[in-house]
């Protein structure tokens, strides 16, 4: 995971360097910019990609991908069926190169005039629908968790107790959901809940930590749902995924720069602590949108993001432990 973290940082550096190069040069069309980015990620130094090379490049990538899909369909038949039925989240381990290859081209007009990420204290369903729900523009709705029990109950010990008492909860995260250690030395949730009380509380001299997981265990989800509500501004007809995402950890680096392939936009409520989010537009928006955007999410705020369309990373600000819960919506 440390290697993956390094890879994430290197990718981000390369990405920003490329963006600067493109801004210095004359305007290139988005497809060419993306092809350059993919070529640089795969092959190192930049080079001109002509039609023949492009053709070879496509064959080079598409042939193994097609074979892998065929093999995967044979070997992972059941899992794929589960995914198609929405019972499984992801068949492949996160791979940023693959993510970049499969994501759709972004409409850079959406961020052309975007100077910052807005923090809005109150928003009606209608305004949210028109401006943010499906536009991919990140936004923070402040003070949006009033009355949520989670603000008083969620803590490291609360989750430890919940997952220890509900048989199968932890195992199902390992087996059917996802666990991210973001480069910190935890192999699984069992490992996280076995740390010493001193480290859990980040007593002086202890190492900071930050992890995240999705919960797809029915009984545990039922209990979690007693502690939070569907954000009041989500469109009436939208449905929140049955998958909850929890991220918890102390000040320091959180998620490293990445892009997801989850299919839907998501909300994330800050239940404790403060977290800085960094958003970087995709390569084809170089010179059209700002190089990066930052916003701090405070306790009680809800972040809205389309993690499929923006590279994003997080950093927990000094102070309390950061705890968030979120989900996708459609
Ligand atoms: O909250 C975090 O640290 C990362 C969240 C994230 O990557 C996501 O919601 O897609
Ligand atoms: Fe993400």
Walk me through the topology:
Layout: H1 2-24, H2 30-43, H3 51-75, H4 77-84, H5 96-102, H6 109-112, E1 119-120, H7 125-133, E2 139-141, H8 150-153, H9 156-165, H10 169-175, E3 179-180, H11 189-193, H12 197-200, E4 210-215, H13 218-225, E5 244-249, E6 252-253, E7 266-272, E8 275-280, E9 293-297, E10 302-305, E11 311-316, E12 322-328
Parallel strand pairs: 1-2
Antiparallel strand pairs: 2-10, 3-4, 4-5, 5-12, 6-11, 7-10, 7-12, 8-9, 8-11
Helix pairs in contact: 1-2
What does this structure look like?
- The structure is a single chain.
- Helices cover 39% and strands 17% of the residues.
- With 330 residues, the protein is an alpha+beta fold.
- The chain has helices at 2-24, 30-43, 51-75, 77-84, 96-102, 109-112, 125-133, 150-153, 156-165, 169-175, 189-193, 197-200, 218-225; strands at 119-120, 139-141, 179-180, 210-215, 244-249, 252-253, 266-272, 275-280, 293-297, 302-305, 311-316, 322-328.
- The protein has two domains: 2-102, no CATH class; 109-328, Jelly Rolls, CATH 2.60.120.650.
- The strands form two sheets. The protein has an eight-stranded mixed sheet with strand order 1-2-10-7-12-5-4-3. The chain has a four-stranded antiparallel sheet with strand order 6-11-8-9, with no helix packed on it.
- The protein contains 13 helices and twelve strands.
- Fe (ii) ion is lined by residues 255, 258, 260, 307, 312.
- One of its GO terms (molecular function) is 2-oxoglutarate-dependent dioxygenase activity.
- This is Cupin-like domain-containing protein.
- The chain crosses the membrane at residues 57-77.
